[in-house]
C-alpha cells in the first residue's frame, strides 16, 4: 500500500508540474520550459517504475503465501478448503499503472486525453 501511495504522489506531482509549465509555455509566459517538463516526466517515469516493482514484489509475496499454505495443508496443519480472495491492492496498483502509462505517453508523444 505504501508503494501505491508513493507512486500515486510521484505520478500526480510529475504530471502537475508538466501541465503547469506547459500551460505557461502556451500562454507565452515562458519561452522555454524544457527543464521543468523533463523533471515532471522523470517523476512520472519514476512513479511507474516504482509501481511496477511494487506489483512484482506483491505478486511474488502472494505466490509465496499460496505455496506456504499448500505445504501446511499437505502436512495437515490447516484446512485448505477456502481460497484466497482477489487482492484489491493488486487491482488498484495495476489500474494506477495503466493511468501512469497513459499519462507519460500523453506527455512524451503529445497524444491522448491529457
Poorly predicted tracts of residues: none
Quick check: average pLDDT?
Answer: 87
Individual helix count: 3
Radius of gyration: 20 Å
Oligomer: single chain
Structural class: mainly alpha
- The helicity comes to over 70%
Order of helices and strands: HHH
> What global shape is seen?
rod-shaped
The span between the termini is: 26 Å
Number of strands: 0
Largest sheet: none
- Percentage of residues in strands: under 5%
- The total tally of domains equals 1
Describe the structure.
The chain has 114 residues and is mainly alpha-helical. It has one domain (2-109). Helices cover 77% and strands 0% of the residues. The chain is built from three helices and no strands. The chain is rod-shaped, with a radius of gyration of 20 Å. The mean pLDDT is 87.
Briefly say what this structure is.
This protein is 77% helix and 0% strand. It has three helices and no strands.
Sum up the structure in keywords.
114 residues, mainly alpha
Write the layout of secondary structure elements.
Layout: H1 2-26, H2 34-74, H3 88-109
Helix pairs in contact: 1-2, 1-3, 2-3
Amino acid at each position: 500500500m505504501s508503494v501505491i501511495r508513493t507512486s500515486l504522489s510521484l505520478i500526480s506531482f510529475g504530471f502537475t508540474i508538466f501541465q503547469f509549465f506547459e500551460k505557461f509555455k502556451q500562454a507565452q509566459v515562458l519561452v522555454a520550459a524544457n527543464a521543468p517538463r523533463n523533471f515532471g516526466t522523470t517523476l512520472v517515469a519514476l512513479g511507474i517504475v516504482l509501481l511496477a516493482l511494487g506489483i512484482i514484489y506483491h505478486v511474488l509475496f502472494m505466490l509465496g503465501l499460496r505455496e506456504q499454505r499448500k505445504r501446511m495443508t499437505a502436512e495437515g496443519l490447516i484446512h485448505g478448503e477456502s481460497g484466497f480472495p482477489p487482492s484489491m491492492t493488486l487491482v488498484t496498483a495495476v489500474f494506477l499503472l495503466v493511468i501512469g502509462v497513459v499519462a507519460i505517453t500523453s506527455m512524451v508523444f503529445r497524444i491522448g486525453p491529457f
